Amino acid sequence: MSLTSENIEFIDNYLKHSNVIYADIRSEMTDHIATAVEAGMTETGWEFLTVFKEYMAKHKKELMKMNNRSQRFSMDLLKHYFSFLTKPWMIFFGFVNFFLLMVYFRIPANDFQMAVDSYTVPLIWLLIILLPQLIVYMFTRKRFYYIERNGFLAAALYQISLLLTLISAEVMPLGIAWCSYVSIGYILYILDNLRQFYTNKIYLTSITK
To answer: Domain residues of the chain, as ranges?
Structure first.
């Protein structure tokens, strides 16, 4: 027996009222619950609500552990972000980015160093962490766990790249390219997360509402 779009929306709303605030985590949990409930309906022949209530009575505590990870910074976050940065096409983008900045456009290193002062660094941190997340929320009206939490990681990597520009003239080009790579890379990371979220065909009817 297959679940209807109304059943999927019911599960999604139930999780919302259970304080599962991040849409991507809620989608994972909805996927888990829907698969189990669908199997239970097929096995018993019972209606959706009966199987759902029985399943949640037995497994809610266990399921909420999936939501509890949103309360802390975990290795899962690091793996999720770095697995994106190490994708072949992202590595290729990194080389192209370095070539364009350092060879084709010949960005002056001294000009870049002069722009890095006590005012721009905090501003850049805020822009990397907050601005993309605000734009995502404005268009989707949803919060995303991986996007929000890895914004801090992206900002930290950007700070490291700024430090590289101050070490020496030889290292500075690498730092400049890394600054650009981290900034653009985080935007691409956001877009990739949104693409995966909205191409989940099972839940498209409910999560896009």
So the answer is: 5-72, 75-197
